[in-house]
Design goal:
Length: 519
């Protein structure tokens, strides 16, 4: 086991070398005694904190901070803020970023998961009151899978999710948190009543739409630029028991998108006849397909169909129900699907699974990839929000003429629509200015010496969109210059910059995003 070096003098020597080698006149404040032993800088710890899920970017921090409490984090940020040369700080949950966004070169990485159980013995507390109904107070370091397990004990559940549940609450809320439920319930950031945040000044602030609202709207989707989320109050509703899970195949992209948009038009939160989930994905003629969802008897004809058309578009939908409502849900699904839907009639597949099995559906793939040594590999992902008005052009120009033609195995490609009215424009996240827009996620995995091919393809896709006037907005994106970020935020840039000056004036938080620390 690696030995942790926690002696304050040794820690300070790191900072003197790292931050002040070029400035002999600079002075340094010692960290407070009560947190001095929280800093670790052994080789194993530093190596882990130098990379993220993407395994493409490496940024070596000076130390990793292991807090025992929220007060520890506040003390750290105050120390970093008050130092004569401010020290960069990055909160790290599962480090599921793919281009170094959760890293802090020469700074301090906060290992949020070391907080462990807290809040009177638990990082997740389920409550209710007359004004909000049921809700969960959840530590920012908590995993969504643990939120699900805990709330289900009360017969309750959040309504908006991400596809992969082994991510921290603070991490997804700092971006948006999207999945197939977002068309109806909005992203995860639209389902938060209240936050506790440590700002870039080290101040502990509780915020909501009515209290310290500027910070509340800044932090949600704010890419970690304005504060570290230490608690979120998440909306809960009664949890279903089971899920009817469908996949429908299309050879015609126009029919695929028309049907998706028709289905998401039924999106009222209280409309029990509406779908609970809708996504879409591609089956590409680029090698073996993942057919684990389908019956073995269908494998040959699915492969034949993909070979024939090159691309098959798969609409994925789900309807939740309680044990005693199965027949009613079957009828509701038939009512939704009958009529003018344009899927291939012999290619409709259905599963009936538990609610937990459905929400945690990615876990089995993760465990399989880990067993093959294919999880901790480069992930040159590209996630885009695409305006609905240009999605047909995106299909012909990108999906067919770049991804399919280049025959670089694409891995998972998701494509599904969302409703803009489910998002709050006061929040920091940027989306296309159309009533409906699409999520397109190209979730590539590659060998360590092959990721550049995907990166080049990603750049070609962005160049095509720019040249064709398709105003895409990257989600979970990365840029090399502040000018690119200014273009990304568009009309929101001035408020974003003003909020930064208000809540993190020395620009110490989340340097890996390279928004204000981009040299």
């Amino acid at each position: 086991m690696a030995k942790h070096i926690t002696i304050p003098k040794k820690f300070m020597m790191i900072f003197i070398v790292t931050f002040f080698m070029s400035n002999a006149l600079a002075t340094t404040l010692l960290p407070p005694n009560d947190i001095a032993d929280r800093f670790h800088n052994d080789s194993v710890t530093i190596k882990i904190a130098s990379s993220d899920f993407g395994h493409i970017v490496q940024e070596i921090p000076a130390a990793v901070f292991y807090p025992n409490s929220i007060d520890d984090i506040a003390s750290l940020v105050k120390y970093a803020y008050n130092n004569s040369v401010p020290i960069n700080v990055a909160a790290r949950g599962q480090a599921h970023s793919t281009w170094g966004q959760s890293l802090a070169r020469d700074g301090v990485v906060v290992n949020m998961t070391s907080l462990g159980n807290r809040l009177n013995g638990s990082g997740i507390i389920v409550s209710s009151d007359s004004s909000l109904g049921s809700y969960a107070d959840v530590g920012g370091e908590q995993l969504w899978i643990d939120v699900l397990n805990t709330t289900l004990q009360y017969g309750l559940s959040p309504v908006s999710w991400v596809d992969y549940l082994y991510l921290t609450v603070g991490g997804t809320l700092s971006n948006a948190g999207i999945s197939g439920q977002s068309f109806r319930f909005g992203p995860q950031i639209s389902n938060v009543y209240e936050l506790d945040v440590i700002t870039g000044k080290g101040e502990f602030v509780t915020c909501s739409p009515k209290e310290n609202s500027e910070l509340y709207y800044a932090v949600l989707g704010g890419l970690g630029q304005f504060g570290i989320i230490t608690r979120a109050r998440i909306a809960l509703e009664p949890a279903p028991k089971r899920v009817k899970w469908l996949r429908l195949f299309y050879s015609d992209f126009s029919a695929f998108t028309r049907d998706q948009e028709s289905l998401i038009s039924k999106n009222e939160r209280r409309d029990n006849k509406a779908l609970n989930y809708l996504e879409g994905m591609l089956l590409l003629n680029q090698g073996p397909q993942d057919l684990s969802f389908y019956p073995v008897s269908a494998y040959a004809r699915i492969n034949s169909l993909v070979t024939k058309y090159g691309i098959i578009y798969c609409l994925e939908a789900a309807k939740y129900y309680y044990d005693d409502r199965e027949s009613r849900v079957e009828k509701e699904l038939l009512d939704l699907l009958k009529g003018n839907l344009g899927f291939l009639p012999d290619f409709m597949f259905e599963k009936d699974v538990t609610y937990m099995e459905f929400l945690n559906r990615v876990r089995s793939s993760e465990l399989f990839l880990r067993s093959k040594g294919q999880w901790e590999v480069p992930h040159p992902w590209l996630n885009l929000f695409v305006p609905e008005s240009r999605i047909l052009d995106f299909n012909s120009g990108v999906l067919k003429n770049i991804i399919l033609k280049q025959k670089i195995p694409a891995g998972i490609v998701l494509i599904y629509p969302m409703n803009r009215n489910k998002w709050d424009d006061k929040m920091s996240v940027v989306i296309p200015d159309e009533d409906v827009f699409y999520v397109v996620s190209m979730l590539h995995s590659s060998g360590f010496n092959k990721w550049e091919a995907y990166d080049n393809q990603n750049k070609e896709i962005l160049q095509f969109c720019d040249g064709a006037g398709i105003k895409v907005k990257p989600y979970l994106g990365h840029y090399e210059t502040q000018e690119d970020w200014i273009n990304h935020f568009g009309s929101k840039w001035e408020s974003f910059r003003a909020r930064k000056a208000l809540f993190d004036p020395k620009m110490i938080l989340s340097p890996g995003q390279r928004i204000f620390n981009n040299n």
